[in-house]
């Protein structure tokens, strides 16, 4: 090696030893081996040499180039190994950290009550029917013996989509639709759960949207005692085996006679408490014998067929059963509320 080459080699080694990243290494590579690099510059000196001197000189420059290339490759390998080690260290997973647990959701108490009630009536051979929340005036009112000018419409003011289309105010239109579809042929035995709407101002016991379950039985020889017997069984199943049922006269345009149905209070067992407002009885539904006009409008012969119908509010049942004071809790989806109803493994609640 010539003096110049030796100096260049030393200088290169010194610079190389200070390098700790691949960017700087690349710059150094260009500085020495690039087109305008120092080693390449030595090659260009060849033209100033005699023919005899050239081969030996060329060989020396090549040796220098090889040495430098080798040194660069060595450091390159070292740097990439280091980079990999650092990456692995940074990505280490701490398997002792606690994992993310899956939250178990609770079901809304209304859904539970609806399911319990459905199960009970399915056991008695009832079919579940669902209707439409956006309903025609005809099925919501007229076919239920509530003509356009009927004053009882005032009790159920609704949200109107148009003159003849509204959000249903009760689940009773499912009665009218089901009867009509039967074309005058019994028996009919259905329950119809669903959401209903009324133009009420919301407070602790009223909501513009709530839930109802309708029941309807139409066949030959159905009597009021069948209604009472069915509701007695129902009350014992849902509220406890000692419950009693009481019917009080009432009025609905689509039933005649009409009744309000009370059950004996499940908290005080009839002696009077805050749940039953000291009366010993809790009102849970409206019911009655299907009005002959309703049967006739749907194409049934009211001399041959009779039936009973009832409508209840599972919201109220849920509020009574779980001691919920404000109906709005049932509809506002606050998880702190819903989480209180997470089922336990034995099928009960927490
Ligand atoms: N539809 C009535 C209401 O919403 C309840 C009811 C249903 C009464 C069936 C009698 C028979 O108030």
TrEMBL record:
Residues 58-85 form a coiled coil. CDD domains: PheRS_alpha_core (cd00496). It is found in: Cytoplasm. Residues 112-343 form the Aminoacyl-transfer RNA synthetases class-II family profile domain. Its cofactor is Mg(2+). InterPro entries: aa-tRNA-synth_II (IPR006195), aa-tRNA-synth_II/BPL/LPL (IPR045864), Phe-tRNA-synth_IIc_asu (IPR004529), Phe-tRNA_ligase_II_N (IPR004188), Phe_tRNA_ligase_alpha1_bac (IPR022911), Phenylalanyl-tRNA_Synthase (IPR002319), tRNA-bd_arm (IPR010978). GO terms for cellular component: cytoplasm. Binds 2 magnesium ions per tetramer. Its main location: cytoplasm. GO terms for biological process: phenylalanyl-tRNA aminoacylation. It catalyses: tRNA(Phe) + L-phenylalanine + ATP = L-phenylalanyl-tRNA(Phe) + AMP + diphosphate + H(+). The keyword Protein biosynthesis applies. Mg(2+) binds at residue 256. Keywords: Aminoacyl-tRNA synthetase, ATP-binding, Coiled coil, Cytoplasm, Ligase, Magnesium, Metal-binding, Nucleotide-binding, Protein biosynthesis. Tetramer of two alpha and two beta subunits. NCBIfam families: pheS (TIGR00468). PANTHER family: PHENYLALANINE--TRNA LIGASE, MITOCHONDRIAL, PHENYLALANYL-TRNA SYNTHETASE. Belongs to the class-II aminoacyl-tRNA synthetase family. Phe-tRNA synthetase alpha subunit type 1 subfamily. This is Phenylalanine--tRNA ligase alpha subunit. The gene is pheS.
């Amino acid at each position: 090696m010539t003096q110049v080459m030796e100096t260049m080699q030393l200088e290169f080694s010194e610079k190389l030893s200070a390098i700790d990243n691949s960017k700087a290494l690349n710059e150094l590579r260009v500085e020495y081996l690039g087109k305008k690099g120092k080693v390449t510059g030595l090659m260009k000196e060849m033209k100033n040499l005699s023919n005899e001197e050239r081969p030996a000189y060329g060989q020396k420059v090549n040796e220098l180039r090889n040495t430098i290339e080798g040194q660069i490759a060595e450091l390159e390998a070292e740097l990439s190994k280091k980079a990999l080690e650092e990456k692995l260290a940074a990505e280490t997973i701490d398997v002792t950290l606690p994992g993310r647990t899956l939250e178990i959701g609770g079901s809304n108490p209304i859904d539970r009550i609806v399911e319990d009630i459905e199960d009970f009536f399915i056991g008695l051979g009832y079919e579940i029917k669902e209707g439409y929340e956006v309903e025609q005036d005809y099925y919501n009112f007229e076919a239920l013996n509530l003509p356009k000018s009927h004053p009882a419409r005032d009790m159920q003011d609704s949200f109107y989509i148009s003159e003849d289309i509204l959000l249903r105010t009760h689940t009773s239109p499912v009665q009218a639709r089901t009867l009509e579809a039967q074309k005058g042929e019994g028996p009919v035995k259905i329950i119809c759960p669903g959401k209903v709407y009324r133009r009420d101002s919301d407070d602790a016991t009223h909501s513009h949207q709530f839930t109802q379950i309708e029941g309807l039985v139409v066949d030959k020889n159905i009597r009021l005692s069948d209604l009472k017997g069915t509701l007695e069984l129902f009350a014992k199943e849902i509220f406890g085996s000692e419950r009693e049922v009481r019917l009080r006269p009432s009025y609905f345009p689509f039933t005649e006679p009409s009744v309000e149905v009370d059950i004996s209070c499940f908290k005080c067992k009839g002696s009077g408490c805050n749940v039953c407002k000291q009366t010993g009885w809790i009102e849970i539904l409206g019911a009655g014998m299907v009005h002959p006009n309703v049967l006739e409008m749907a194409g049934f012969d009211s001399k041959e067929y009779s039936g009973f119908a009832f409508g209840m509010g599972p919201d109220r049942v849920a509020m009574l059963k779980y001691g919920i004071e404000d109906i709005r809790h049932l509809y506002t989806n606050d998880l702190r509320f819903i989480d209180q109803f997470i089922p336990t493994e034995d099928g009960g609640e927490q």
